[in-house]
Amino acid sequence: MSPASHRDESPDRLYTLTGGRTRSAPDTPFDLVTLVVAESEPAPGMQSEHAAILRLCRRPTAVVEVAAGLGLPVGIVRVLLSDLLATGRISARHPRNAAVPGTYRLPDPDILEQVLVGLRNL
Q1: Helix (H/G/I), strand (E/B), else coil: 25
Q2: How far apart are CA 43 and CA 28, in angstroms?
Q3: pLDDT digits (tens, 9 = 90+) for 72-91
Q4: Per DSSP, what are the bridge partners of residue 38?
Q5: Where are the alpha helices (DSSP H) in the chain?
Q6: Rounded Cα distance, 39 and 59, in Å
Q7: End-to-end Cα, the chain, rounded Å
Q8: From the first residue on, what is the mean pLDDT of each consecutive set of 10 residues in the chain (122 residues)?
Q9: If you ran DSSP here, which 8-state letter would residue 62 be given?
Q10: 88: nearest Cα among 56, 43, 48
Q11: Secondary structure letter of residue 37 according to DSSP
């Protein structure tokens, strides 16, 4: 069993990790596949989970992989990532626009409607 599987996931511990916050900042770009890259090394006195994220993200790592590596729920990890993003310790990019910043566009609403109709017909 990995060390992460032994972690305490009690509500009290999770509340403490996030300072009682249940959502990341509204302007943060984190979904499950957002790639996170550490922009600095862990600093002395830093919250252990923040330091662990920086170590995990030395290479581009998806949010869902960070959550799995820490053994924490994705929602909690998003709050922790939001903290690190606000201090410039990480950068975050969606894989679709990682190669060319500013090029991501939402899918055509007509295509989404067709997909929805197709799924309903299954």
Answers
A1: coil
A2: 23
A3: 888 889 989 999 998 999 99
A4: 90
A5: 11-18, 48-56, 63-70, 74-86, 109-121
A6: 10
A7: 40
A8: 46 57 63 90 92 95 91 88 92 69 60 75 76
A9: E
A10: 43
A11: E
Q: Which of 60, 59, 50 is nearest to 89 (CA)?
A: 50
User: b/e per residue, 48-62, with b = 16+ CB within 10 A?
Assistant: ebbbbbbebbeebbb
Taking the C-alpha atoms of residue 98 and residue 36, their distance in angstroms, rounded to an integer, is 11
Question: What gap in Å lies between CA 26 and CA 45, rounded to an integer?
Answer: 27
- CA–CA dist 109, 5 (Å, integer): 41
pTM (predicted TM-score): 0.64
Chain position carrying tokens 């030395």: 58
Planar angle of CA 56, 42, 98, nearest 5 degrees? 50
